[in-house]
Amino acid sequence: MRKLLLINLLFINSILSFAQGNIDGTVIDENGEPLIGVTVFINKTTFGTTTDLNGYYKLTNLPNGDQTIKFSFIGYITQEQNIKIESNSYINLNMTMKSDNLLLDQVVVVGYGTQIKREISSSIVSVKTEELENKPNNNIASSLQGKAAGVQITTDNGMAGGSASIRIRGVNTLSGGAEPLYVIDGVPILNDDISESASRFGYNTSPLTLINPNDIEDITILKDASATAIYGARGANGVILITTKSGVEGKSKINFSYNTGISTETNRLELLNANQYVDLYKQAWVNDGNNINDLTHINNIHLDSIANTDWLDEVLQTGSFHDVNLSYSRGNKKINYYLSGSFKKESTFMKGNEFQRGTLKGVINYMPNKKTDISTNISFGRTDNKYAKTGSAGGLGRAQSEALPIYPVYNPDGSYYWWDNGGLQNLNPVAEAELLDNRNKSYRYLNNTKVKYDITNNLTFKNEFGVDIINQYERFFTPKEITIKEDSNGVSLSTLENREIKYTTLNLNSTLNYIRKIKTNNELSVLAGFSTQNSKEDYKYERVSGPTLTFDSNTSDAQYQEYSIQGRGQEYAILSFFSRLNYNIKKKYLFQLSYRTDGSSRFGNDNKYGHFGAVSFGWIVSDEKFLNDNKWLSFLKLRSSAGSRGNDNIGNFNQYSFFSGNQNYAGSYGIGPDNPSVSNLKWETVITSDVGLDFGILENKIEGTFEYYYTKSSDVLVANSPLSPSSGYTNVTRNLGKVKSSGFDIQITTHNLSKKNKLKWKTDFNISKYKNEVLDLGDAKEISGTNFGENRAIVGQPVGVFFLAEFAGIDPTTGDELIYDLQGNKVVLNATNSISERKVMGKPYPDFYGGINNTFEYKNFGLEFFFVFSQGQKIYDDHGKRQLGNMGFGWNQDIRTLDYWQTNGDETNVPNLSLTENRDLNSSRHLHDASYIRLRNLSVSYSFSEKFCDKLKVEKIKIFIASQNLAVWTKYKGWDPEVNREGSGAITQGVSYLTPPQSKVFTTGINITL
Amino acid sequence: MKKNLYIILIVMLFGCEKYLEKIPDYKFPSELATSNLDSLESITNGIFNQLQSGNLFGGGLIANSELLSDNWDAPPISSFSLNQLRTRDLNAYNGEVNGLWNDAYRAINMSNIVLHYLPVHENQDITKATLIRGECLFVRAICHFELVRMFAQPAGYSANNNHLGIPIKLTKSSATEGQNTIRSSVDDVYNQVIQDLKEAIAFLPETKDSRVSKWAAIAYLTKVYFQKQDYANTLLYCDEIINSGNFSLNTNVDEIYSVSGWNFSAETIFQLINLPEDMNNGVLTGRLKSTSVAYNNPFDSLVSLMNDERKVKLYTFLGVPYLKKYSNTAMNITIIRLAEIYLTRAECKAMLNYADIEVREDYNIIKSRANNFSDNSTTGQLNLLNAIHTERWIELGFEGDRFHDLKRRKAKFYTSIGNFEWDDPKLVYPIPQQEMDMNNNMIQNEGY
User: Fold this and answer.
1) In this predicted structure, what is the pLDDT of residue A566?
2) What is the CATH number of domain B35-438?
């Protein structure tokens, strides 16, 4: 190309004599930026030129007649236009170049701006809308699973509105938050679960479910220090930038889609049936030295009248959903807009668990002149989530544990059968599913208004004002039938609780961006900005009780009033300055420097401001002369970065010593201390260095990225870092720890077959290897993640290791459970040595994980199958100790309990049966390898032919069927190898306690574009 | 928009520090919370709220001692910690054990905070300050006393009681101060408790219907001396209460169990008040309600000893063992009542070789209230003591007395899990693991 250009230039200079017509104009890119160095020439002639610094070109003395003018530039689609040249005519032709779709030349969203992918010297992954389409997930994060190297996503549960945990390059923290920062259209948004779903229903929900996944244009994940330092004290866990759809120039476009499907749990647990249960109970009874004839009842049920209830059957169902989306967009040079609406209605595999979502979105973009661009983006989401109890909260968790198969669901008179659990509560999972009405109605309003103004050709001012408002109304209704709450006269009372949260975030970003071409091919760009954010949470809680209450009763009615509180929590403010400088030499040598200062209300008075920065270099090796003649290497970039960012997920008010109110006694107002003060509390500092290599081979048929990183975090927050409880305080939050981590991220895309009109086959593969180590914990020897300390942070060990006594088999002669003591001797497990003989037994995070996606296209058919895998992580079944040979605990047992030890010489993993021995003890018997490969998505689609579409006067019709989580291959015997009892905590991962499974979904749908 | 920006720029330049200071409005910075006498009064209210905690008098302290005694042989319990208590197979991670330790020391620290700031603010209202001082000393004493009874071998375990007790806390703690307090001897703990109670008596009100009256402190002194087997001193303080004429036995045996709110029965000496909207006794009533204390075998042996009104009104339903003491969920938690003082005095008299009739007189008062025949025949110290022990078991059953009473008497625990000597290490709580980890001077109890 360049050689040709040179020849052209020579000709222009020499062949002036035939010159007759003239043409000139400006070439700009899609963003309106002038393009420099675009080749412009007249087809089949030798007339040609390149654009100058302002994108301007001029061709003179052109021959008369019909000609074709051609514009070409690396990374952009070549444009042709027919023109008619007349003598001494003068044509003005401006051209907008569109970037071609080669991955390397995509425009990628970065912090406070965009960059061309090939010119990026930091670690960034971008996921486009097509890859997120037609997924049944309510939560965008779930759809990202397996799509990007270095991004580990665990869908925590399959319940409606459920959350997902994201770890970008693992964890560098202990008790600070480990979730990345979410930024939607430039506005940092709330991702924390502010509901009470976890404490009351046993699973986390996420406010991300208030956003319609179909409104998303693309998601960019910022991984290294160079990319995230511009987010300063919030960048350490990585940043997820979400860009939503907006209008584009062109004729109006209507998009309609309808998806529907069914869902079940991924896997069904096998538990004992009634006869098996009674048999084992009898065996235990006899083993305890009792006479079998004395056994007439089990838990007040006569053995002659036992039921045979499959409680899982009773509370599970086949779920279903309907999801309708409609969007409209159109635009011209001055104004464009996008409107969309959606509605989704879902019932999950758990009876009584329902979800509804409606969303509306509108974007208007107005460009009154070339210099000004004003846009506003408003979205509104509403969800109505009916909770169902799971895990330790009851419901499904109870159906798989306390609910014995010998209990009937109903008494003979049709009323619910209640069993006795110590008189604390009436229990029956079916009654819970049918009687309880617990709802979360949430509303989320997101608005981002932008004004962009080009002060000069080089200098642009941009102001973004963002609003994120979540109004959440939770109502918990417990009818009197299911409680044992009574007034002093013994009258049963229903309870209604009303919890309202209004969470408002205001965000302002102002930036100045200066771009200047230096000489022909060097570019300097400087961004400087200021940002402030203020978040506020107002809440209100009321609890009323009365015999006649209903779900819709007015809680402010004084006759019921029992308890009420309102106030403000979670107030949080940040004030920041940031800057980024990019300098590219010949688009070959890339350099980036970024910097941010963050002041935060979360930091202690001794450490109010944090400073963060990063530097990165890139070198596009393939543009060097010595590789010019190379046939196979189409692109090669080396890059490296280093820098620091912070993690401010340290709680809002931890630096202060507070007294809390409402510790009343006999009607007198009382207060009490929460914690001692820590005035030097600060962010966690995370320093990362990164080297990467981006390549394209054989005309980019094979594209990919290799990255290696090393991260060290210091001042790691240890929330609840323990104190001696005899001081009257049990814990305090302090910056105590150091953690290091390192790993590889590899991402490869191969276009195996890509000829037009033939079978096309593309493979995307990514794999990440990751390890970390706790280096220091200050004066805390170790930090336990849960009450019983299964997960720990221990110096010299990976974060969150399982700390358990090592199972040494069942003694073949006695049937007792054995463990190895710390000297390696086999001893019988008991309450004391289950604690004293603990050691590190594995980690909850994988050695490596990733995804492989194959897409095939043949004519109008498309086929996609997508696997995700994860290797080396462990799960601790905290309920296993109660369900594998622990008849005395009173729960139903796992089917594997049938292998219990019976006679001398039995080799088994289940001890002898007993009703009196304390088997409620932790050991590694319940620690399992949770490695898995999951067929995450399988879909077949068919796009109707253009002919057919033309007949119907539509642009495109596509139908598909898909299945999510169709199959999973794992050795783990629980519900599902992806579980997470404790939500998003860094230490407390990989523990299952009656944790609900994920859902297996079959979807079919249609997409129509008009 | 631009205007906004300017406003924020101005705020930035001049008001940065304020902008970045966020304090939740539902919490009080500690400087404020200790800045005046009214605040200290609020903290004192908070201390009583703390006493109602499910780990303290609002539940675990009483219910768990019953679980460990021979009163209640519970079937397997679906709570890890409670089941460990049931099997007397505890470890240092037990939630009930940790909860008691943490909550009791929290109450102690709160008392120390108030006592620390009182001298600064007492001039604001000397009457109020005096009352608060008495109450805080009282709480500090009873918390130390309850802790030493659960976390150390009982008084009488070693000569001079110089065996390991618990940390004594007399000053307020911070993140760095008070983190490595040593375990004092049991004798030192008892002496401190007695000193605090005696001091409290001087500050507490005479009126018996007070939140804490001076009679409550005196009554606690009888408990402390009695547990220490100092019968002469116990007798002295029992006499002071009985002779004051302030208290009399309720007519009905079950009356005390339905007193609720700001009401004091004739017999009540110290109680924690429960308002219907508080329901702070939930753990206690929940655990000791009839349906929790499983019928059939558990307290047959106790019921078989009874032949009076208490059997029908408190311990059985249609002849089957069925505990009714905690049926009224609105009830106040009675911690000391006159019946206990009579029974304690009877035992002291017996131990101090008083005339048989004088001994019988004290426990006959309790018997006759239950419409039982008076005992006019038992003679001799041993027989009398047996009779008193039985009477005490029946009268104070499931009220948190039995466990400590057996230990005081060095008696054997006969339970369905097995028999335990009074000084079996399994009947002493382990020091919580967190205390072991964080306190460099802490020593674990035997067997853990």
Assistant:
1) 74
2) 1.25.40.390
